[in-house]
C-alpha cells in the first residue's frame, strides 16, 4: 500500500487512472447496452412448424394481420411478392424484434425451405415480384463501368460511393452493402424494402441491375484492393482527418518529444 | 579537404567562404546566428512540423504538376482501373487516375502530398494553440502571431483548392457548395459566381483557375509569409518557460551549431519519414472509388477535408432562413454561416490585441505563462476550441449518426444549442480548473510536495509528510507576474470636478476586473507568508 | 543504457558549482537560484557508452542507405499494378507499400541518426544568450526622425500639394485597369439561372435506359431520374445543363398528396421535382419511400415530396421546384413547360 500511495504522485498516475476510468465506462456501457442476441428464442417454437401459413401466423401475423392485410404495426403484404419475403426474412430483418426507426439486419432464423413456404404464402395474397433466379442476378459478363455510373446516379446518394452506407432522417439509415449477396441486392432494388425506393425493371432493367451488382462486387467485394493502403472505412475525409490527427500528428508529436527530451544523466546509484 | 599539397593556402571551404563573405557578408551574418540559442521543449517543435510538412508538400506538389493536366475537357477513361473504363471524365480526373495507377510511385507521392497537407494544417492549429495558451503572442511577437494566423487561413484555402483539382465526385460537390455560398452574397452573388466559374456552374474553367491559385498564387504568398515568420522568430529569439537561470533578459538552451542543426535538420527527415510511412499504409482520397464529378450525382457522407469541417458544421446546422422582399432574396440560411466562418477565425486572431489593451502592458515578454496562471486567457482559448469542435461535430453529423446509432436531427439540434452554450460552459469550467491549479501551486510552495508517506505522531495523529520544495522549484512556481485590476479612480476629483471617464475606459476596467479582480486569480504566495509557515514548528 | 555499470570513479564529483551561487537572496526564498550546474551524461564520462552511441548513429545511417537501395529495387521489381495481401492492412498495391516503407525508413533513419548524435554525443551544456531590447535607443530614434524630416522637406512633399494630390490620384486610379481586365472572367448572369433545358412537350427520358417513360413504368415507391429529351452525356454542355435540369420522378397515391397544386401538376400521382437542392445545390435524392421525405446528403435539408416538397428540416430556405408534367399523344410522360421558378440555390435576384 505504501508503494501505491507513493506512486499516485507519479506523472503517469493520471493517465493510468484515466485508462481505468475509460475501461470501467466501456464495461458499464457493454453491460447496459441493449442485448442483440436474445431475439431468437421467442420465435424458436415456430421452427417446428414447416408450413407457410402456419409460419406466417406465428411469426408475422401479429404485425401484418392474420390475412396479410396489414395493421398499425406493419404494412400490408398484399402484392409485395415473394422477392420481398425472401429479402426480408433471409436477411433476418423479418420478423422484426421491436418497433424502431428502422428494422436492422440480423441473424436469419428460418431455413431455406421455410422461407420458400412463407414466400409462397405471401405471394398467394397478391401478385408481386418473384424471387429472382441465378441468371437474373449473376453479375458475370456485366458492364462494371456502366454499373458504376448507375450506382453513382441511383444508389450512392444513400449508400455511399462504394456502398459503405449512410445516415437518413430521424435515426434511419442506408445499410452497408458489404457482404450482401447479389440475390439480396437484386431483390432490394426490385422491391424497395422499408424506406428504400424500388427500382423496378420498367425503369431499371435486369441488365442494369446486374451491372450494379458487378460494380459493387468490384469495388466492395472480398477481393477488392485498396491500392493506397488502409481503406479507413471508405468514409472519406472525416476518417482521413481523424487518422491524420491521431496517427500522423500524434506520431510526429511523439517524435518531437523524443527530440527535445533531455538525455539521461549519469547518476550515482 | 585536399590541402595536403598546398599548405600555404587556406582550406578550400574557407576559401569559398571568403569568396562569399566578400560578396554577401556571410561572416557577420554567421556571427550573429551560428551559435544562436534555442531552448529545448517538445512544444517548441510544433512549428517545425508545420515548416517541414510545408516543404514536403511543395516537393511532392512540384512532382505532381509534371503529370497533372488541369483541364476540364471530357475524355473517356481507357486506363487500367476496370470499374471506370468507358466512363466520361475530365482530363483533370483522368490524369489523376494516370498518376495513381500508371506512374510508378505516383500514388505514393499523391498520398504524401495529401497526408502532408492534412498534417500541415493540423500542426498549424496545434502550434497556434501552443502559442496562444502560453501567451507567446505578447509583445514583441504580435505581428508574428498575425503572420502565423494568415498562414493558417491561406493553408486552409490552398488545401481546399487542391482538394478540388482532381474533379472527382466528392470535391465537385464541395465546389458546388462553394458556388451556392457565393450565390447567396447579396447584390453581387450571381456576378461573382459567373466570373469565378466563367459562366454557369460547373462550366469548363474552374479546374484551370483553381490550379493557378493552388500552385502559384497562394503558395507564393505563403512562402513570403513563412520567410517573414521565420526571420522574426530568429530576430526575437525564442521564448522560454520560467525556470532557474531563465530570465526575461536571456534565452537558455543549446546552440544552433551543432545541436539544433542536427536536431532540427534531423527532425525534417523524421517528419518526412513518418509521413512517407503513413502514405505507405493508409489510403487517402481514393478518387477511383469516388468517381468523376457530375452535377447530378452525389454520395452520402459528402464532407470537405477536416480543416474545412467547421464551416461545413456551420452550414449544416443553420436554420433555413430566407427573406423575400421587393423582388429580391436575402439568403440568410447560407449567407449567415458564410459570414460567421471568418468571424470564428477572427475571434482567436484578435484576442492578443484585446488582452494587451486590457492589461495595458507595454513590456516585452519572453517568459511563457503556464496556462493556469492566465485563467481568463486559457478559459477563452478552451471556449474557442469547444466552439470549433462543436462545429466539427456538426460537420460530421451524418457519420456520428450512423456510428453511434443516433438521429441526425437530434445531433443537429444538439449542435445548434451547443454552439451557444458549449463555449460558455467550457469557459466557466476551465477558469475554475485553472484557479484550482493555482491554489494547488500555492499550497505546494507554502507546504511542500505531498510525499504520500503517512507518519504517525507520538500522540497518535496521522499526518502526511510534506517534502519542502527546492529553491529551483520555488522560483519556477512563483516567477509569474500577477496583474492588478485596473482602477478608474474616483469619478469626482479632489476639487469636486467630475472627471470624464470614457465608455471604453469603463469597459476596460470591467474587463480588467474580470481578468484579475476578486476571485479571478489566486494571489501567489509571498516571501513573508512562506517564511511564517516554514519558520514555525516545522511543516508536516 | 542504465547507469549501474558505470565505475564510481568516473562519475562527476559533487559538481563544480562555481558560478552557480548567484544572488542566493537571503531574504527572498523565491529568488532565482541561477542555472543549475551541468550534469554529465553517461556518454560524457564513459567512452564505452560514447562509442556505443557512435555505433548506433552509424547503424542508423547505414540502414538508411540500405533502405534507399531497397527503394530503387522495389521501383524496378514491382509492377505498378501488383496487388498483395498484407496483414492487417488488406489487399494493397505492392509498389506503393514497398516504396513508401523504404522511403520512410531511409528518411526516418537519417533523422533518427542525426538526433541521436546530437542528443548523446554533442555537448549538452546549456548556454544562456543575452536578449536586447527590440526598440531603438532614443538617440537612434531622434536621428531617424531628423533624417525623415530632412528627406520630406527636401522632396517638397508637404509644400507642393498639387504634386502630392495628383500623385495620389494617379496611384489610386491605375489599379482600376487591373480590375477592368477581370471583366471577361465570365458572362453577366442575365437570366441564365432562371431557365433550364425543360420546355413544353419535351419528353422525360430515363437516365438509366435513355428511353422515354410511360406512366405505367413508374410504380408507387419507386425512384427514377430523368433528363429532357435531346440531351446526351456526350454533349459539351451536358455538365452545365444537367446541373439545372436534373429531375427526379416518384409516384405517390393521389390521396396521399397533401398539396393541391402538387396534385394538379402531377400525372396520376406521378410528380416531378428538381433534383438540385435549393440550399447550395447538391443533388438531393435520398428518398424515403414510406415517409415521402427526401434528404440532402450534404447538409441534411429535408423536403416532404407529398406536401409540395416544402422544407421540413435543415438549412434550405424554400421548397424544391416542381415541374408540371403530362402525357403526350404516344403515351409518354412530357414536360408541360419549364420550371416556374429558378432551380437550385437561392440568389439575390431570385425574388
Automatic annotation (TrEMBL), chain A:
EC annotation from Swiss-Prot or TrEMBL: 7.1.1.8
- Catalytic activity entry: a quinol + 2 Fe(III)-[cytochrome c](out) = a quinone + 2 Fe(II)-[cytochrome c](out) + 2 H(+)(out)
Give membrane topology per the record.
Multi-pass membrane protein
Q: Which segments cross the bilayer?
A: 242-261
Q: Which residues bind heme c 2?
A: 155, 158-159
- The entry marks the following residues as binding heme c 1, namely 60, 63-64
Where, subcellularly, is it found?
A: Cell membrane
- The top EC class is translocase
The secretion signal range is 1-30
Q: Which domain of life is it from?
A: Bacteria
What residue stretches are annotated with the Cytochrome c domain? 47-126, 142-220
Q: How is it modified after translation?
A: Binds 2 heme c groups covalently per subunit.
| An example Gene Ontology molecular-function term | iron ion binding
Alphabetically sorted, this entry's keywords are: Cell membrane, Electron transport, Heme, Iron, Membrane, Metal-binding, Repeat, Respiratory chain, Signal, Translocase, Transmembrane, Transmembrane helix, Transport
**One Gene Ontology term, aspect cellular component:** plasma membrane
Q: What Pfam families is this protein classified in?
A: Cytochrom_C, Cytochrome_CBB3
Quaternary arrangement and interactors, per the entry? The cytochrome bc1 complex is composed of a cytochrome b (QcrB), the Rieske iron-sulfur protein (QcrA) and a diheme cytochrome c (QcrC) subunit.
Q: PANTHER family given for it? A: CBB3-TYPE CYTOCHROME C OXIDASE SUBUNIT FIXP, CYTOCHROME BC1 COMPLEX CYTOCHROME C SUBUNIT
Can you name this protein?
Answer: Cytochrome bc1 complex cytochrome c subunit
Q: What is the scientific name of the source organism? A: Streptomyces boluensis
The beginning of the lineage is: Bacteria, Bacillati, Actinomycetota, Actinomycetes, Kitasatosporales
From TrEMBL, chain B:
Enzyme Commission number(s): 7.1.1.8
Q: Where are the transmembrane segments?
A: 44-68, 114-133, 145-165, 177-198, 210-235, 256-284, 330-354, 374-393, 413-434
Q: Entry's InterPro entries?
A: Cyt_b/b6_N, Cytb/b6-like_sf, Di-haem_cyt_TM
Task: State the reactions this protein catalyses.
Answer: a quinol + 2 Fe(III)-[cytochrome c](out) = a quinone + 2 Fe(II)-[cytochrome c](out) + 2 H(+)(out)
In what way does this protein cross or attach to the membrane? Multi-pass membrane protein
GO BP terms:
respiratory electron transport chain
Q: Which domain of life is it from?
A: Bacteria
Please tell me where this protein is predominantly located.
Answer: membrane
Q: Which Gene3D superfamilies match?
A: Cytochrome Bc1 Complex, Chain C
UniProt KW Cell cycle keyword: no
* Enzyme class, spelled out: translocase
UniProt keyword Cell inner membrane present: no
In the UniProt record, which is one GO cellular component term? plasma membrane
In terms of Pfam families, this protein maps to: Cytochrom_B_N_2
- Cofactor(s) required, per the database record: heme
Subcellular location as annotated: Cell membrane
Secretion signal, residue range per the UniProt entry? none
Start and end residues of each Cytochrome b/b6 N-terminal region profile domain: 16-242
Q: State the name under which the record lists this protein.
A: Cytochrome bc1 complex cytochrome b subunit
Q: Species name for this entry?
A: Streptomyces boluensis
UniProtKB/TrEMBL annotation, chain C:
Q: Per the record's keyword annotation, is Electron transport included, yes or no?
A: yes
Q: How does it sit in the membrane?
A: Multi-pass membrane protein
For whether the record's keyword set contains Iron, the answer is: yes
A GO MF term: 2 iron, 2 sulfur cluster binding
> A single Pfam family, by name?
Rieske
So where does this one cross the membrane? 57-77, 97-118
CDD domains given in the database record: Rieske
The record's keywords, sorted A to Z, are: 2Fe-2S, Cell membrane, Disulfide bond, Electron transport, Iron, Iron-sulfur, Membrane, Metal-binding, Oxidoreductase, Respiratory chain, Transmembrane, Transmembrane helix, Transport
**Which residues are in the Rieske domain?**
239-334
Region ranges (Disordered): 1-40
Please, which domain of life does this record's source organism belong to? Bacteria
Q: Please give the GO cellular component terms listed in this UniProt entry.
A: plasma membrane
The cellular location(s) given in this protein's UniProt record come to: Cell membrane
Subunit and partners: The cytochrome bc1 complex is composed of a cytochrome b (QcrB), the Rieske iron-sulfur protein (QcrA) and a diheme cytochrome c (QcrC) subunit.
According to its UniProt record, which protein family does this protein belong to? Belongs to the Rieske iron-sulfur protein family.
Q: What does this protein do?
A: Iron-sulfur subunit of the cytochrome bc1 complex, an essential component of the respiratory electron transport chain required for ATP synthesis. The bc1 complex catalyzes the oxidation of menaquinol and the reduction of cytochrome c in the respiratory chain. The bc1 complex operates through a Q-cycle mechanism that couples electron transfer to generation of the proton gradient that drives ATP synthesis.
**What's the name of the protein?**
Cytochrome bc1 complex Rieske iron-sulfur subunit
Q: Per the UniProt entry, what species is this protein from, by scientific name?
A: Streptomyces boluensis
Per the UniProt record, the lineage of the source organism begins with: Bacteria, Bacillati, Actinomycetota, Actinomycetes, Kitasatosporales
Amino acid at each position: 500500500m505504501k508503494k501505491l500511495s507513493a506512486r499516485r504522485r507519479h506523472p503517469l498516475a493520471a493517465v493510468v487512472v484515466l485508462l481505468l476510468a475509460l475501461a470501467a465506462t466501456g464495461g458499464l456501457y457493454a453491460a447496459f447496452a441493449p442485448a442483440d442476441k436474445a431475439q431468437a428464442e421467442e420465435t424458436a417454437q415456430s421452427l417446428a412448424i414447416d408450413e407457410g401459413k402456419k409460419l406466417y401466423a406465428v411469426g408475422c401475423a401479429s404485425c401484418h394481420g392474420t390475412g396479410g392485410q396489414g395493421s398499425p404495426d406493419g404494412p400490408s403484404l398484399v402484392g409485395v411478392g415473394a422477392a420481398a419475403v425472401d429479402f426480408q426474412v433471409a436477411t433476418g430483418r423479418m420478423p422484426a424484434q421491436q418497433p424502431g426507426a428502422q428494422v436492422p439486419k440480423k441473424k436469419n432464423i428460418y431455413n431455406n425451405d421455410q422461407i420458400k413456404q412463407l414466400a409462397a404464402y405471401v405471394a398467394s395474397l397478391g401478385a408481386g415480384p418473384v424471387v429472382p433466379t441465378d441468371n437474373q442476378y449473376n453479375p458475370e459478363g456485366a458492364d462494371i463501368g456502366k454499373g458504376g455510373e448507375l450506382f453513382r446516379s441511383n444508389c450512392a446518394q444513400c449508400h455511399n460511393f462504394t456502398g459503405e452506407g449512410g445516415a437518413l432522417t430521424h435515426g434511419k439509415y442506408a445499410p452497408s452493402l458489404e457482404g450482401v449477396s447479389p440475390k439480396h441486392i437484386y431483390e432490394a432494388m426490385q422491391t424497395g424494402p422499408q424506406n428504400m425506393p424500388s427500382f423496378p425493371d420498367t425503369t431499371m432493367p435486369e441488365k442494369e441491375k446486374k451491372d450494379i451488382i458487378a460494380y459493387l462486387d468490384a469495388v466492395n467485394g472480398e477481393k477488392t484492393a485498396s491500392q493506397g493502403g488502409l481503406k479507413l472505412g471508405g468514409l472519406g475525409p472525416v476518417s482521413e482527418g481523424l487518422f491524420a490527427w491521431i496517427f500522423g500528428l500524434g506520431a510526429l508529436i511523439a517524435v518531437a518529444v523524443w527530440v527535445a527530451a533531455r538525455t539521461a544523466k549519469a547518476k550515482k546509484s | 579537404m585536399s590541402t595536403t599539397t598546398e599548405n600555404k593556402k587556406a582550406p578550400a571551404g574557407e576559401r569559398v567562404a571568403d569568396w562569399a563573405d566578400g560578396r554577401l557578408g556571410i561572416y557577420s551574418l554567421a556571427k550573429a546566428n551560428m551559435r544562436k540559442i534555442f531552448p529545448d521543449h517538445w512544444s517548441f517543435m510544433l512549428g517545425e512540423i508545420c515548416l517541414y510538412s510545408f516543404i514536403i508538400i511543395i516537393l511532392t506538389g512540384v512532382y505532381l504538376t509534371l503529370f497533372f493536366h488541369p483541364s476540364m475537357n471530357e475524355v473517356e477513361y481507357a486506363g487500367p482501373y476496370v470499374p471506370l473504363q468507358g466512363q466520361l471524365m475530365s482530363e483533370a480526373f483522368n490524369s489523376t487516375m494516370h498518376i495513381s495507377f500508371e506512374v510508378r510511385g505516383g500514388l505514393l507521392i499523391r498520398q504524401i502530398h495529401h497526408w502532408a497537407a492534412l498534417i500541415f494544417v493540423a500542426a498549424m492549429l496545434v502550434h497556434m494553440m501552443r502559442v496562444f495558451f502560453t501567451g507567446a503572442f505578447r509583445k514583441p511577437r504580435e505581428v508574428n502571431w498575425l503572420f502565423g494566423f494568415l498562414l493558417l487561413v491561406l493553408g486552409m484555402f490552398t488545401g481546399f483548392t487542391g482538394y478540388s483539382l482532381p474533379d472527382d465526385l466528392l470535391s465537385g460537390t464541395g465546389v458546388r457548395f462553394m458556388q451556392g455560398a457565393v450565390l447567396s452574397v447579396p447584390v453581387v452573388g450571381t456576378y461573382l459566381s459567373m466570373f469565378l466559374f466563367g459562366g454557369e456552374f460547373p462550366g469548363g474553367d474552374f479546374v484551370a483557375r483553381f490550379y493557378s491559385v493552388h500552385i502559384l498564387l497562394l503558395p507564393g504568398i505563403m512562402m513570403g509569409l513563412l520567410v517573414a515568420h521565420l526571420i522574426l522568430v530568429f530576430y526575437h529569439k525564442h521564448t522560454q518557460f520560467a525556470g532557474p537561470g531563465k530570465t526575461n533578459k536571456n534565452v537558455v538552451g543549446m546552440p544552433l551549431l551543432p545541436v539544433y542543426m542536427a536536431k532540427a535538420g534531423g527532425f525534417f527527415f523524421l517528419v518526412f519519414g513518418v509521413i512517407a510511412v503513413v502514405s505507405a499504409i493508409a489510403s487517402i482520397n481514393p478518387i477511383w472509388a469516388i468517381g468523376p464529378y457530375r452535377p447530378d450525382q452525389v454520395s452520402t457522407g459528402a464532407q470537405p477535408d477536416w480543416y474545412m469541417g467547421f464551416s461545413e458544421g456551420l452550414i449544416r446546422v443553420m436554420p433555413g432562413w430566407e427573406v423575400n422582399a421587393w423582388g429580391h432574396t436575402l439568403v440568410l440560411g447560407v449567407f449567415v454561416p458564410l459570414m460567421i466562418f471568418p468571424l470564428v477565425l477572427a475571434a482567436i486572431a484578435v484576442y492578443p490585441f484585446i488582452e494587451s489593451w486590457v492589461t495595458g502592458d507595454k513590456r516585452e515578454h519572453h517568459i511563457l505563462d503556464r496556462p493556469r496562471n492566465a485563467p481568463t486567457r486559457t478559459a477563452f482559448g478552451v471556449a474557442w476550441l469547444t466552439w470549433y469542435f462543436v462545429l466539427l461535430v456538426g460537420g460530421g453529423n451524418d457519420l456520428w449518426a450512423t456510428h453511434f446509432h443516433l438521429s441526425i436531427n437530434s445531433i443537429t439540434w444538439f449542435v445548434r444549442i451547443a454552439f451557444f452554450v458549449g463555449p460558455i460552459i467550457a469557459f466557466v469550467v476551465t477558469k475554475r480548473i485553472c484557479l484550482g491549479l493555482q491554489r494547488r501551486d500555492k499550497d505546494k510552495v507554502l507546504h511542500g510536495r505531498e510525499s504520500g508517506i503517512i507518519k504517525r505522531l507520538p500522540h497518535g495523529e496521522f499526518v502526511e509528510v510534506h517534502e519542502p520544495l527546492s529553491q529551483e522549484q520555488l522560483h519556477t512556481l512563483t516567477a509569474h507576474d500577477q496583474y492588478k485590476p485596473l482602477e478608474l479612480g474616483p469619478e469626482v476629483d479632489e476639487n469636486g470636478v467630475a472627471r470624464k471617464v470614457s465608455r471604453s475606459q469603463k469597459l476596460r476596467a470591467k474587463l480588467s476586473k474580470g481578468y484579475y479582480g476578486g476571485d479571478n486569480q489566486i494571489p501567489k504566495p509571498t516571501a513573508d507568508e512562506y517564511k511564517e509557515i516554514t519558520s514555525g514548528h516545522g511543516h508536516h | 543504457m542504465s547507469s549501474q555499470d558505470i565505475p564510481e570513479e568516473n562519475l562527476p564529483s559533487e559538481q563544480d558549482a562555481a558560478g552557480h551561487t548567484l544572488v542566493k537572496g537571503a531574504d527572498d526564498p523565491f529568488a532565482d537560484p541561477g542555472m543549475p550546474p551541468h550534469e554529465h551524461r553517461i556518454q560524457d564520462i564513459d567512452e564505452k557508452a560514447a562509442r556505443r552511441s557512435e555505433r548506433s548513429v552509424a547503424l542508423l545511417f547505414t540502414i538508411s542507405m540500405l533502405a534507399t537501395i531497397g527503394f530503387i529495387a522495389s521501383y524496378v521489381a514491382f509492377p505498378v499494378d501488383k496487388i498483395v495481401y498484407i496483414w492487417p492492412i488488406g489487399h494493397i498495391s505492392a509498389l506503393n507499400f514497398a516504396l513508401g516503407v523504404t522511403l520512410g525508413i531511409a528518411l526516418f533513419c537519417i533523422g533518427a541518426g542525426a538526433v541521436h548524435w546530437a542528443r548523446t554525443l554533442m555537448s549538452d551544456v546549456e548556454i544562456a544568450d543575452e536578449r536586447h531590447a527590440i526598440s531603438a535607443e532614443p538617440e537612434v530614434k531622434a536621428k531617424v526622425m531628423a533624417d525623415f524630416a530632412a528627406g520630406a522637406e527636401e522632396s517638397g512633399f508637404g509644400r507642393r500639394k498639387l504634386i502630392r494630390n495628383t500623385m495620389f490620384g494617379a496611384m489610386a486610379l491605375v489599379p482600376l485597369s487591373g480590375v477592368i481586365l477581370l471583366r471577361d472572367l465570365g458572362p453577366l448572369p442575365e437570366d441564365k439561372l432562371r431557365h433550364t433545358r425543360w420546355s413544353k412537350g419535351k419528353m422525360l427520358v430515363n437516365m438509366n435506359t435513355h428511353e422515354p417513360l410511360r406512366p405505367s413504368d413508374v410504380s408507387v415507391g419507386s425512384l427514377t431520374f430523368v433528363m429532357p429529351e435531346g440531351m446526351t452525356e456526350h454533349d459539351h454542355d451536358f455538365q452545365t445543363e444537367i446541373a439545372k435540369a436534373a429531375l427526379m420522378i416518384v409516384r405517390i397515391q393521389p390521396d396521399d398528396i397533401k398539396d393541391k397544386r402538387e396534385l394538379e401538376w402531377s400525372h396520376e400521382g406521378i410528380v416531378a421535382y428538381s433534383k438540385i437542392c435549393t440550399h447550395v445545390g447538391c443533388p438531393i435524392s435520398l428518398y424515403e419511400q414510406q415517409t415521402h421525405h427526401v434528404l440532402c446528403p450534404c447538409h441534411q435539408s429535408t423536403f416532404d415530396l407529398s406536401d409540395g416538397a416544402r422544407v421540413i428540416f435543415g438549412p434550405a430556405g424554400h421548397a424544391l421546384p416542381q415541374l408540371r408534367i403530362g402525357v403526350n399523344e404516344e403515351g409518354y410522360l412530357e414536360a408541360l413547360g419549364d420550371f416556374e421558378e429558378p432551380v437550385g440555390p437561392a440568389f439575390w435576384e431570385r425574388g
